């Protein structure tokens, strides 16, 4: 099965990114034809520091590899280095109704969050995402629930093109993780984990043991003392149980039984130790890769060349069908 996914280089990865996306990609690369991309063109649609973008891209590449991505088993590259992404996005925009873009939830949310930065790129973000996916004849896209609407629009765009100009595109499906697609903030368990919203509510993939312990011990819990999963009545402890379950590979029921009659402090201490042990290999690998910048750049260059061949093949068909060649 052909898989495509990407992530924006907007800062250090956290455990929500890992559990909701990267862990799934690492499993998918073993038995599928996978294309993974650092989507820097998407990153410039919201406020960013241009002087830090290249550093963020390199750090994200290191993070992907440290987390277990294998360049020999997937295509791994930087989006802006394959010009067909922007070219196809423009062409898709020529027949996509404006109303469909205004209805996108992410456009509404980002517009509220950055009212001073509402731009045409933000509105056209879903078209660029559709181009990312459709360029590679993608069959499935691993996404969280918040991105599912974009995949549905991509399917609609593919159908519309195929009907109007002739069959070129595959209609991709969403590939949702079974659990962990939404890890919540440690400080506000009703909000998704995000470094920009609340740094203390977010465990970075490369946080030090001291930072992890401090963040877990100060995590918001709920009234009462029982360690029990109840998303509505006990969102704080439920979020911590989900994290514990995913890193320990034990069921929530097993964890509840383990901590029956015990307090929040003991549970949190155990979770902090589990995270410190689980993330230690990533941190060691990160240090190794950071000292091999030339090697990282060579991996990205090889990925770019492979992606260009695939993207150019699709664009030749698109242009022919649209009468542009």
UniProtKB/TrEMBL annotation:
What cellular-component terms does GO give this entry?
cytosol
Reaction(s) this enzyme catalyzes, per UniProt:
tRNA(Trp) + L-tryptophan + ATP = L-tryptophyl-tRNA(Trp) + AMP + diphosphate + H(+)
Query: Matching Pfam families, A to Z?
Result: tRNA-synt_1b
The kind of enzyme this is, by top-level EC class, is ligase
Where do the annotations place ATP binding? 8-10, 16-17, 144-146, 183
Motif 'HIGH' region, residue range(s) on this chain: 9-17
PANTHER family per UniProt: TRYPTOPHAN--TRNA LIGASE, MITOCHONDRIAL
Annotated function: Catalyzes the attachment of tryptophan to tRNA(Trp).
Q: Which family does it belong to?
A: Belongs to the class-I aminoacyl-tRNA synthetase family.
Q: What is this protein called?
A: Tryptophan--tRNA ligase
Which species? Answer: Candidatus Nealsonbacteria bacterium RBG_13_42_11
User: Gene name on record?
Assistant: trpS
